[in-house]
Amino acid sequence: MQALTADASFLAERGSGQIAQVFNRAVNLWLPARQRWLTLLSESCDNAPNSCRLALTHFDDSFQPGQLIQLHPHGIRVADTLNINTVSCRCWQPPKLMLSAERFHQIPWLKWRDTITQQLNTHETLFLGGGDNPFYQAISEQLQCNRKILFKALLNNLNITFAVTQMIGLGIGLTPSSDDYLVGMSAILFIPGHPAAHLRDEFISALASARKNTTSLSATTLEAAFDYRYRENIFAFIASLINEPWQLSEKNIAGIKNIGSSSGCDMLYGMADGCALSRTYGGNYVS
């Protein structure tokens, strides 16, 4: 089997582990000795940190949870029955983005916020309600409560680490809703050159103290995000925001929505809040 693309961190990994979860377009690998998560993605997916795209359209019949894996310089051996060749795959390099002070003030931040939220439906993220399920309704209420606390902390520049800590791990799934929200918010606030980028240290401190409150996979995702390593579709959105701030691309938003079952929508909700907060740092409000 041929690998198409992979990021440098994936290609550098060595050691043994096992397949932890198998989904239609993604397979999560766990390396216990390294305490590392890696992901195999189908060819239709965008590139991502610690991931490798394969020349497959879906994975349902190709991999099984519990199968042993071995990473070596030429690829991955799966259960002594399958070899994944990484020798000729292309190394994906995330783009280097920078937001100048002049461009920051030119971006219509609230217009971007409105465009994102218009693309989100109530059933797509727990931040917008839990439907008829009382359990989901309770989670939704708590998510909004903690979100308001975080917003107030960021606006007043007080108790930020505590507010982020209270968000981590809240929600459902392998990557809880609040964690995906924080990934999205950080994608906006931590753009190199953004006036709020200095808050990154507070988010990192919060993750260090609240890591045990979420899944190890989600903690790895947050760690990458706070290090400004995101999926390719998120980088495409940020590049559009910086380079074409007056041309809001619904295509880029749709690409993020397709991440996971609800993760992409939770990320977008956080990105929308990141845009709204950017307005408070002096960003433009031009309709």
Note the main attributes of this structure.
globular; 287 residues; nine-stranded mixed sheet; alpha+beta; 44% helix; OB fold (Dihydrolipoamide Acetyltransferase, E2P)
Write up what this structure looks like.
- The protein is α+β, with helices and mostly antiparallel strands.
- Helix content is 44%, strand content 16%.
- It has helices at residues 8-12, 101-106, 109-118, 134-156, 160-167, 177-189, 200-210, 216-226, 232-243, 250-257, 263-280, and strands at 3-7, 15-22, 26-31, 36-41, 51-54, 68-72, 75-78, 82-85, 90-92.
- Helix 6 (177-189) runs parallel beside helix 8 (216-226), helix 6 packs across helix 11 (263-280) and helix 10 packs across helix 11 (263-280).
- The chain is globular.
- The model is unreliable at 283-287 (pLDDT under 50).
Outline of the structure:
The protein folds into 2 domains: 3-92, Beta Barrel (OB fold (Dihydrolipoamide Acetyltransferase, E2P)); 101-280, no CATH class. The chain has 287 residues and is α+β, with helices and mostly antiparallel strands.
What profile does the largest beta sheet have? Answer: 9 strands, mixed
Outline, from the CA principal axes?
Answer: globular
Helical coverage, percent range: 40-55%
Q: Can you tell me the number of structural domains?
A: 2
Q: Quote the distance from N terminus to C terminus.
A: 50 Å
Q: Overall mean pLDDT score? A: 93
What is the oligomer described by this structure? single chain
> Could you list the spans in which at least 5 consecutive residues all have pLDDT below 50?
283-287
Strand order in the largest sheet: 8-7-6-2-3-4-5-1-9
Strand element count: 9
